[in-house]
Amino acid sequence: MTPIVRSPPSAWVRRVAPGAISSAPRTLAVREGVTVLAELAGAQLTDVLDSLVDAMMQMPTGRRRLAAIVALTQARKGSDGFLEFVGETHEGAIFLRGWARAADPGNARVIVCGENPVVADCGIATFSRQDTPQGGAGFIGLLAASEPLRARDVEGLVYRGRGGWRYASVHEHRLIAGPTDTPGHIRFVLLQTHSTPAVLLRLRSAANSFEGRETISTLPCSGATGRRQYLSGEQQRLSDLRLAARP
C-alpha cells in the first residue's frame, strides 16, 4: 500500500517570493559565528568578544556554554603563553606554572580547558623570567574547583587578564607531577613571586604540605605494633645521641 504524505498545515509553511532569499534562522557553529562577528565588528572584534564572554560568565555555566566561551577566546590570534608544569596537591588543588603576557597577580575566576571544561578559582602569582617572548612573564597558579580535577586532564586555561580574556594552552612538553613531588616545585619558585597576601598564603600552605614517604602508615607493621616499633627506634636514636655527646 502506498503511504500517504500529508502536506504540513499552512501555518508551518514559510512562503518566499520567487527570487527572494529566505531569512529563516539557522544554527551556527561557534567558530562560524566568530567569523560572522569578525566581518561585522571589524577592528572592534576584540572588544566584542570580551563583552560577549563577560556576559556569558555571568550566566549559569553549563558544559556547552563553557565550551563556547573557550572557542570564543581561542578565536584570538595565538595562545597567550603556555602551561609548562601541572601538578596535583594533597589537598586536591592543581598547581600550574608557565608564562603569559596578560596574567595579573591575584585571585581570578578561570575556565580549566579539557574534555569537560570547568570553572575554578585560581590564585595567581607572577615572577620575572628571561626566557619568555617580549612582554611575557612567569606565573604560577593554584586551582580550586567545585569538582575533582586531575593534572593529566588539563589542556589549557581561559582567564581574564590585562586587556581582556586570554587563553593559555598546555605546552607539548609539559611536566605532570603527583602530590608527593608538587610541593617541592612550588617551593622552588615561590620566593621569586609576588601577589596578594591571601594568594601567597594559599601557595605557601600548598608548598609546606607534608610530602614524607616513611610515615607510620607505610611501616611493615600496621596499627599499634608499628607505632610502638617506630617510637622505640626514635628513643634508641636519642639515647645513642646522648651517649655520643658525653665527654
Structure notes:
By secondary structure, the chain is α+β, with helices and mostly antiparallel strands. 32% of the residues lie in helices and 25% in strands. The protein has a 7-stranded mixed beta barrel with strand order 1-2-5-4-3-6-7, surrounded by 4 helices.
Question: What's the helix and strand layout?
Answer:
Blueprint: H1 30-41, H2 45-57, H3 63-74, E1 82-88, E2 94-100, E3 106-113, E4 118-127, E5 137-145, E6 156-161, E7 164-177, H4 182-190, H5 197-207, H6 223-245
Parallel strand pairs: 1-7
Antiparallel strand pairs: 1-2, 2-5, 3-4, 3-6, 4-5, 6-7
Helix pairs in contact: 2-3, 4-5
Oligomer state equals: single chain
**Beta strand count:** 7
Q: Which sheet architecture does the biggest sheet show?
A: 7 strands, mixed, barrel
Structural class: alpha+beta
Helix content: 25-40%
Radius of gyration: 28 Å
* SS element count, helices: 6
Strand content: 15-25%
The overall pLDDT, averaged over residues, is 78
What is the H/E string? HHHEEEEEEEHHH
Intertermini distance = 114 Å
Strand neighbour order, sheet with most strands: 1-2-5-4-3-6-7
Shape: globular
Which residue ranges are poorly predicted, with pLDDT under 50 across at least 5 consecutive positions?
Answer: 1-16, 19-24, 213-227, 241-245
